[in-house]
Amino acid sequence: MISLQHIHRDFQVGDQVVHALDEVNLEISAGEYVSIMGPSGSGKSTLLNLIGLLDRPSDGHYLLNSEDVTTLSDKEQAETRNRQIGFVFQAFHLVPRLTAAENVELPLMLAGMPPEERKPRVTQTLESLGLTDRAHHKPDQLSGGQRQRVAIARATVTEPKVLLADEPTGNLDHKSGDDVINVLESLNNKGITLLVVTHDHELGERAQRQLKMRDGCIVSNQLNTTGHASL
Amino acid sequence: MHPYNRDVSLFAWRALRGYPTRTILMLIAMAIGVAAVVMLTSLGEGARRYVTNEFASLGTNLIIVFPGRSETAGVNPSTMMGETPRDLTLDDALALTRNYNVQRIAPINVGAADVSWQNKKREIAIIGTNHEMLAIRHWQVAQGKFLPETDLDRATSVCVIGSKIRQELFGPQRALGKWLRIGDRRFRVIGIMGSEGRSIGVDVEDTIMIPVASAQQLFNTPSLFRILVEAKSRDAIEPVKQFVIDTLQKRHQGEKDVTVVTQDAVLATFDRILGALTYAVGGIAAISLFVAGIMIMNVMLIAVSQRTAEIGLLKALGAAQRQIVILILVEALLLSALGATAGLIVGQLGSMLIRHAFPLFPAYAPAWAIATAILVALLTGLLFSLLPARRAAKLDPVTALSGR
Question: Could you tell me the residue ranges of all domains in chain A?
């Protein structure tokens, strides 16, 4: 599903070159649940952005569904992002002037889908996340947990293969956080490949596979026998 | 409309509504620019039409003859001898009637003289002319009658006075039939001019008209100030003009010492000057549109930096750079279009107000000015948002979205 080969990502900071990613090799199969942990500046967000096609590697190859996506044009990358990848962010990033339903509709609109096809998909996605009665609320009328669920609905409405979550519980209280994690894990149970970047060990340890990063390298890659699959 | 285009317009519209202060400020800037163009050009155009109308009221198919020549036509004996041009005389005027294409002529003599009645006295402009003047200038007599139809060289002692003079000298008393003193002669009032006869150079209400021969005696001069010649039709203007030039050259021993202008030529000159004025004023107003464009650029730049997270998000959701550019451009275009519409309404209301305040002044913005104003508004809006749009497209979504 995801195959990273000899990936390097360098940033120029002043006259110093920072190696945000240094020779990363990683294989993730379809349907896996992977957590990426590590201290700040270890390169985990950079890795997630690379996988999400928001950033390009300085060197190396990235195969998504055995297709080399590093050489795609901006337009092709945007299309791939739209169809195959869903993002969930710590700060939710809902568009404040649009209602929950309109936020969920955005990726379909960007894909050029006609309105009459969009509406049922939006309604269905919102329903599956228990947000039907919140569909016409603006983000500032929703609780944090509800906002993150709207964001998840938006990330999954295009039925992507991969869901990338960057500290999805970081801005939430414990209860809402648990709620959001349950939603993400149930999506994973239905077959979506789930990657979660987190500081939170408790959260990270729920994943089947845990990656630990330090200084741009993956220092540990272990399967978790006590992952949520057995819970 | 393609559904995606409608989506983009809707998205842009909601973005505008989402930031009302910014939107209203930009609308005002754009509206002022467009309104300025519409109002200023309507003023310029109004001036042009006003002058044109005034000239039309001067008479139709008119040829104006005056002594002296404004052009230098090479060196001839008269320039060496420093000879002054010959006067235009009544005989000259009479000679001009002898053509089939000439409808009527009016010789004109002007001067000022003290006019008195009983113990009231003031200086008044005097026009010496003949009975044809009334028809040539399309004037109306309010009371009595105009100058009598007599031979040009007959100096009768009658006068036609303007309504303002009637008011000042006679007040409520009857003026017709009274004897006025003009200079050292006495004239009987036979007519009073209506108040509508007002055209460039002559305020009929404030003049006295006497027969041209009487005026020559009064001012003690054989020469005329002007001769107005009315051609039978528009097509006859050119032949009559040639006839006038030839006749007067023959009568003046071969010297071309008069200037003959057609009213059309004068009108065309004014038309050109005032047309240029309208363009100039419109151009100045267009600068305010340009300034509005720069404002749009600044505000769109701010809007882009305010909305980095949103733009980053759109990228993450699968918007290509081109789509981002289009979104920003559509937003700017929508803004300029709304501003232009508002400006158009304000501008038209403004010129309506001008027309209401000065009914004689036809202040209508010309169609070309309105079209240009709207076009320039849209173009500047589009052009000046290209830079912000490109910046938005190039935005790094990684940093935009990591803001936590």
Answer: 32-45+75-230
Of A82-86, B18-22, B191-195, the range with the highest mean pLDDT is A82-86
Which residues neighbour B44 within 8 Å (Cβ) at sequence distance 6 or greater? B274, B277, B278, B279, B280, B281, B282
| Two structure tokens written together for A190 | 């239905």
Residue B149, number of CB atoms within 10 A of its CB: 8
Q: Does B390 touch chain A (CB under 8 A)?
A: no
Residues B45-85 pLDDT 10s: 888 888 877 777 667 788 888 887 655 545 555 444 444 56
- φ, ψ of residue B65 to 5 degrees: the values are -110, 130
| B161 neighbors B193 (Cβ within 8 angstroms) | yes
User: Closest chain A residue to B17 measured between Cα atoms?
Assistant: A97
Locate the domains of chain B by residue range: 3-55+268-402, 106-227
- Regarding an ipTM greater than 0.90, the answer is no
pLDDT digits (tens, 9 = 90+) for A51-110: 998 888 999 999 998 889 988 888 898 899 999 999 998 888 899 889 999 999 999 998
Could A167 and B404 be called an inter-chain contact, meaning their C-beta atoms sit closer than 8 Å?
yes
Question: φ, ψ for residue A214 (rounded to 5)?
Answer: -150, 130
A166 contacts in chain B (CB < 8 Å): 401-402
Pick the CATH number of A32-45+75-230 from 3.40.50.300, 3.30.413.10, 2.60.260.20, 1.10.8.50: 3.40.50.300
Kindly give the pairing relationship between strand A209-214 and strand A33-37: parallel
B21 part of contact set with chain A, CB < 8 Å: no
